Amino acid sequence: MIITKQNLLDTHKRIKDYIHRTPILSSQLINEMVGAEIYFKCENFQKMGAFKMRGASNAILQLSKTEKEFGVATHSSGNFAQALALAAKMQGIKAYIVMPSSAPEIKKAAVKGYGGEVIECEPNLKARESTLNDVVNKTGAVFLHPYNDYNVIQGQGTAAMELIEEHADLNCIFTPVGGGGLLAGTALAAHHFSPNTKVIAGEPMGADDAWQSFQKGEIVPQTNPNTIADGLLTSLGDKNFPIIKEHVEDIIRVEEEEIISAMRLIWERMKIVAEPSSAVALAALIKEKEKFQNQKIGIIISGGNVQLDKLPF
Asked: Which residues form a coiled coil (predicted)?
């Protein structure tokens, strides 16, 4: 599927009443530290605390009346689970969320708080998929993939659209990459609305399947990821990888201590709550800051859903 400029404009118009237009913040100290002018698009202030609300809303709003009657289903250990539960509640439809038993209790509680029905399974992909199939077969609910779905990708792209609308002269936009929905959406937004803006991803060294895939030119599945950035543990999807391959400039890998240091910097200097996955984009910029001196740079802070009793600093 070719996603056009008009598709993205239609998407933003469709979802704007169901999402927050999140603020764009900056920090003089971080600018001086990096040697660049940085604009942080704060999706940690989005409804349910992450950019995922954009894609979930767009996917649900595209369903037919009949499909909505049966509800929606997904498998997710975190932010998409919460986003889909809330987006479904706002449309008055049922949401069935398959979550691994190892998912943080705070995230399970949030899904239930948004009216989602949590179905627990063993913490592996095979169990997640087979449990989801059972749920779909039993309920008739429509499966919405957390990131490998064109409607979801287009929804995620609206964060960068808003950023570009306010700062039309960005040299680069940095995002984290896990499944690739945010990165693909951001790359499409830059391609259509600011073609001179390069899109760069940050990725944990301990979960670097996107970097490997990018180097090899084909999807390399994620195996045994190990990182504090718990939102970036999934493999790339076959719908978003071709977009990433065509429109993303680079993927920069970062170490765990670099992620923690960037996360701490955001908390201390910007006085905002950002989750580890969010800090990966800033960590990538700091790691290679010599390349970006005196440039104007956008960073998407992807979310702020942190388990406060497990802070890494």
From this structure: none
Spot the catalytic one: 27, 77, 194, 278: 77
Residue of 52, 107, 108, 198 with catalytic role? 52
* Known catalytic membership, residue 26: no
Q: What is the pTM assigned to this prediction?
A: 0.96
Answer whether 163's CB lies under 8 Å from 41's CB: yes
Q: Is the dihedral of CA 167, 172, 54, 267 positive or negative?
A: negative
Are the beta carbons of 148 and 179 closer than 8 angstroms?
A: yes
94 Cβ contact partners less than 8 Å away, ≥ 6 residues apart: 70, 71, 72, 88, 117, 139, 141
Domain ranges of the chain: 5-50+149-310, 53-143
Examine the residue annotation and report whether 235 is marked as an active-site residue of this protein: no
Domain topology for 53-143: Rossmann fold (3.40.50)
| Token pair of 311 as six digits | 């802070």
Lowest mean pLDDT among 38-47, 102-111, 115-124, 178-187: 102-111
